[in-house]
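Contributing: when you submit paired examples, paste them exactly as shown. First protein:
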Amino acid sequence: MNARASARANAAALAIGAALLCTFIGFGVTLNPPGAVDRAGRALTGELPYVALVFTASCWWYVLVAFAVAGIAFAVAVPSWRARVAFSLVITLIGWQASDAVKNFFARPRPDYGILHIETSASYPSGHAMFAVVVYGLWSYYVATSGLPAGLRRALSVLLALWGVGVLWSRLALGAHYVTDLLGGVLFGIAMLALGTALAPEATRAPSKRAAVAAAENP
């Protein structure tokens, strides 16, 4: 098995494992009342609520659409990034619709102590947690493996990763989700990224690395 086939197999295995674990947790939390971990998460509700609302708003649909428009403009201006931007857009859109379908399947009720922005959709898995992975986590990786100057690359990559963590925290601070909802959303996001990588591994590579791999495979 060559390196590309091995990488695709590993990504497929990760996608299957994350999806199965997400499903297992989903049945567990749907058939049982909130456990100790979920009850403990309530302690964060009410912490810096307006700061939490900013993090939460960064995953609302119109913000994501604005990001998509900016990404498309960037891809037009920098052709070497088109595959990465296209991968991000496709994964985000499919993940968005798929997570809504999974939410409707499990139909877990939201916590009854939400504040500021009360949501009525089902609770598991958290769509915001999924977006934290497939948007902010993915772009943190993109920046970390880009050709930007080292200092700027590290700073932006860490900022994006921390923003994703902030999104997760905000869902607890607003009482919008249980801890297990967030875990399920993270697993769902990992499954989506891994599946996409298994199907199109070249799309996630840095432009310079993609060119090097193509040159090595087509001497």
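Second protein:
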Amino acid sequence: MTGNHYLTAIADACVARKATDVRGYQLHHPLFEDAVMVATVSNSTHLKSLRDDVAKVCDGLDPEGLPSEVSGQLSSGWVMVMVPGRLVLHIMLPNMRLFYQLDALYADKARVIQYDATP
């Protein structure tokens, strides 16, 4: 399964679970993951729920591959779900996303997905 397939599947999962400002970036570097995604959630309960749900989706995409890894503390307002060699998803509270400006790191990369789950 390619990075683009992961991007699409994870973006769909994020939007279905009401994450907002979901953006995916395709990377072109052999030492890093194929793709990076950033999504915003509304509160720490939403953060935990999306983290757990997306990890399950990632594991179901390639049952023969490496399992997903989860990093970060819920109390920090920022967690990551990683599929080694494929994708890193940063799930952040709005204040963390504004402060760290991760999207600016990937501004020169091709944005391949941008979803918004606003009602």
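If you have annotations for the second protein, write them as plain sentences, like these:
Strands lie at 20-26, 35-40, 69-71, 78-83, 87-92, 111-115.
The longest strand covers residues 20-26.
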